[in-house]
Amino acid sequence: MSAALARIPRMALTCAAIACLNAISWSLVTPPFEVPDEPDHFAYVKQLAETGRPPSSSSEDLSKEESAALYALDSERLRLRPQIHAIQTQGEQEALERALASDAHETGSPAAGVATSQPPLYYALEAIPYSLASGASVLDRVALMRLFSALLAGFTALFAYLFVREALPAAPWAWSVGGLSIALAPLLAFMSGAVNPDALLFAVSAALFYCLARAFRRGLGTRDAIAIGAVTAIGFMSKLNFIGLAPGVLLGLVVLTVRQARAIGHSAWRRLALAGGLALSPIVLYALVNALSDHPVLGLVSQASPGGSLLAELNYVWQLYLPALPGAVSDFPGLFTAREIWFHQYVGLYGWLDTPLPGWVDNLALVPATLIAALCLRSLYRGRAALRSRALELATYAIMAFGLMALIGLASYQHFPATDAEFGQVRYLLPLLAPLGAALALAARGAGRRWGPAVGAAIVVLFIAHDIFSQLQVIARYYG
Amino acid sequence: MRARGRGSPARAALVASLTLLALAIALTLTRSPVSVAGTSVPRGVSEEPIASTQTGASYCQPGERLPRAVSAIRVWLAAVTGPRVSLAVRSDGRRLTGGRSSAGWSGGSVTVPVGALAHAVSDVTLCVSFQLRDETVYVQGSGASAADGLRAGARELPARMWVEYLRPSSSSWVSLIPSILRHMGFGHAAPGPWSAFAALALLAAAAALASRAAFKELR
Fold first, then answer.
1. Is residue A146 part of a domain?
2. Which residues are within 8 A (CB) of B147 and not within 5 positions of it... i.e. 6 or more apart?
3. Is residue A99 part of a domain?
4. Interchain CB distance below 8 Å, A424 and B84
5. Is A209 within a domain?
6. How many domains does chain A have?
7. pLDDT single digits (tens) B124-177
8. How many CB pairs under 8 A join A and B?
9. pLDDT confidence of A300, banded at 50, 70, 90?
10. In a domain? residue A316
11. Residue A415's domain spans which residues?
12. Where does residue A298 rank: exposed (0-12), middle (13-18), buried (19+ CB within 10 A)?
């Protein structure tokens, strides 16, 4: 164990430590249950930890003790009303303490709202800190569970750094730019400083990108196949959104196997079978359990149905990210989705998507974002010969990204036109943090060897600034 | 190698960027938070949807009072993915001030920055307008007589839209730090200001570690 730890680059561990510290800081700043769906995720853990069974109802009829805490925290009124602050008086605090101390405890929480449909791995892991604090108040349990999530932020940053290292082997000085920036990303810390399976999804996705990059660089060994298969299996058990990454993983495995088969013959296909078998094992098990218990074989996925024609769906998914093509019906009239949904939210939208940074920050942020994008493109252009030789590897990452984006788009289309972009939330794209780290490292490299490190240093400080001002905004909103 | 690195452009950029960041934080803390200078939100009443549209609309509310120095106006419109909202404040048919929000907002209210006036103006009409195709936007407020109510085109509604007029307060963020620290002590696992200090220390440690790592690695 210690030998394995010693092989991890020091900078990777530094990135992990920074991401952990940052996420713990966010967990202290953000009031309990003021992160999207945190009450529902807490309820899922409560049910699993106290009864050993997952929740069975997606209603919002949460347990009495959680409802009492939410009521005393004024959560319902706080949500979506940025003008309202968290509790601010000694009287409110005493009322909260009375609510927490009341004996309104009941075993489990059969209803867990939107969390009910999610796979159980994250909740099973969170059941450990939950159980450790089982005699304590709801808020104590939330605090301990948030600390566990914050640890996962460390894994996300660690694997993001390792991915950058494998993906860009020729520029060691630029690795730290990618790793440190991801470790400081405020949205990662905000989500990982909360009880939310996104924290595990981000970590698993970053690990998967790293495993694939490693296999593309060194060949698909048996250990690599096992790692990719196992990480994919963990991903399937973490959050349904992981399904979006699967087509890209499949492409990557096939490409790696074909390459390996040229070197070692047919035994390479056994590695593919090993990885595939491991990866799909949770799905097979899940389908088997459902089939035996007379439930839809693929659960929620079986019930998904398209809301219109395929062309209309594709048109919608395209426009959720990019401007409408000429001649296409606009599904988002007057809305530049790339900027006004995705960029705006990335710049800063916290709490229940009700705590934005001031509007002028969006405009200001366009300047560094454009510069970083331009430098990244310059770096890609200068390395186009190397890009050609790694086209299939890049296609793998691209299909993973497109798959995730398409999944978000198709899920949103189920609610369209009642709501324009139900799942238009940038946190759903954070499984792509590892490639974002590589893009930032490329941007630093795009400035050339002389000025690249200076640009890299500026990028790292930009992320520090983004993180600090985001926390200040959250503090101002809830406690100002 | 070490001596050469010490004077590298990367380290100069790092020091300069961190200095700039420190100045930006100091500047921000000397600024004032916005405060509510005037409101049509009644106390102790919950908002309710008083109108809704899926096609876009223009709503005007007479009988408003625009306080002086208002830099933004918060109107109670609710949407998942809100449209660009245009707002105008008129008096006797003359436009006094106005502004536009960006699209993509979500939640139960939208804040529109407006040009500040040096003096207060009574009995103004506040109008908001926006275009939509599918998304539903709800106007939120509470009941009132139709004569005083919100106008949706020629229609007079027996309710008023909630509006808040915002302007910079007289106190700076620095002067508010003690009360913010006190507030941060409420509503958490272990009450008391320790969580605020712990959060600050953790954030500072993360920033310091990252700066140190960048200083060592980038040269």
1. no
2. B156
3. no
4. no
5. yes
6. 1
7. 999 999 988 778 899 999 988 878 899 998 889 999 999 999 999 989 999 999
8. 231
9. low
10. yes
11. 158-479
12. middle
